[in-house]
Write a structure and sequence with these properties.
The protein is α/β, with parallel strands linked by helices. The protein contains twelve helices and nine strands. The chain has a nine-stranded mixed β-sheet, sandwiched between helices. Helix 3 packs across helix 9 (about 265-270). The longest helix is centred in the middle third of the chain and has 15 residues, at about 125-140.
Length: about 325
């Protein structure tokens, strides 16, 4: 386990839903499924109404899981981070939906997905079966798979267990727990020092130092939120505030429970994983500094490593244009 598990602090605020376009998902297989599909309306920050389509599928244990579809083109299955946070914060990934059909998954127990009877199914190694069930539901021989943050652990385990089912794999500001890489507190402090000229830097850095030393409290965690974005502007603050209440904390505690990850076995499998892999790091990302992401990339025989300048943990928010250009080019 990493010495400091960093995620943006959640705080109460009015939630702004990400914009999603209308899309035609796979038609329901059964009458029961048809009752759990629907068009949902929401509002974005400019007050305009947006519409997107939600559909469900049955996991291996019968749990109904939800996904949201946006955009056009070949499907791209997208796994959110958190861990165990719903997919709302991904939005349209900065406009990637103009290039690919985004299939945004709500993990079991989050968003519009059902809570399972067996809570041990929140383990990351068991969530692999949910991804495979979705692939079968979509009727795809191979997946293009994108994952963010903690969701990359699930994507890596899926790729190691089902390598023949992955066409391309994009790991965005990835976690490295599944492969046993630790991100040190000092590397996070070193990354944070790149922001020393920011007006909010002083209190944020003091809190980060306290967290690294194990002395911070939940009440002070909010001070480090600016570190997760390339610019702590209104757009970033709205995005951060919209994540309040979106993570299932009980599920997150089980996601990486003891014995879930077997780094040696996973590394051995990845050494023979020949599909193209994109590892994209944010220059300012504290969760996985570029040096750690670069080390992760070396585990894949066919990896491309990219550092997005002046970006943090959510690169599609910080610089949508470069993010979409890099990711769309890789996926093509």
């Amino acid at each position: 386990m990493t010495p400091l598990a960093l995620v943006p602090a959640r705080r109460a605020n009015s939630r702004t839903l990400m914009r999603r376009k209308v899309f035609r998902p796979k038609q329901p297989d059964t009458a029961e499924e048809s009752r759990t599909c629907g068009i949902l309306c929401c509002f974005d920050e400019d007050g305009a109404d947006k519409v997107f389509v939600m559909s469900t599928f049955s996991a291996y244990d019968g749990t109904k899981l939800a996904y949201h579809v946006s955009g056009e083109g070949l499907p791209l299955v997208c796994l959110p981070g958190g861990p165990m946070q719903d997919s709302d914060y991904l939005g349209e990934l900065g406009g990637l939906s103009a290039h690919r059909q985004l299939v945004l998954v709500d993990p079991r127990g989050t968003g519009l997905s059902a809570i399972p009877q067996d809570t041990s199914s929140y383990r990351c190694d068991r969530l692999v079966d949910d991804v495979e069930a979705l692939r079968e539901h979509l009727g795809l021989d191979r997946l293009d798979l994108l994952a963010h943050s903690a969701g990359t652990n699930l994507a890596v385990l899926y790729a190691s267990r089902h390598p023949e089912r992955v066409r391309r794999l994009a790991l965005i500001t990835p976690s490295t727990r599944a492969v046993g890489m630790e991100v040190t507190g000092e590397s996070r402090l070193e990354t944070a020092r790149l922001r020393k000229n920011e007006p909010w830097y002083g209190p944020a850095f003091e809190t980060l130092e306290a967290m690294v030393a194990g002395n911070a409290t939940e009440a002070t965690r909010e001070a480090i939120n600016p570190f997760f974005y390339g610019r702590w502007d209104a757009k970033a603050q709205t995005h951060q505030a919209a994540q309040d209440g979106r993570r299932n904390d009980d599920a997150a505690a089980l996601f990486g429970a003891e014995s879930v990850f077997n780094p040696d076995t996973t590394r051995t499998a990845l050494a023979t994983f020949t599909a193209p892999v994109l590892v994209l790091a944010g220059e300012f990302d504290l969760n996985t500094p570029p040096s750690a992401a670069a080390e992760l990339a070396t585990l894949f025989p066919n990896a491309t490593f990219v550092i997005q300048p002046e970006s943090g943990h959510f690169p599609w928010i910080d610089a949508a244009g470069p993010f979409v250009a890099t990711t769309a080019t890789f996926l093509d």
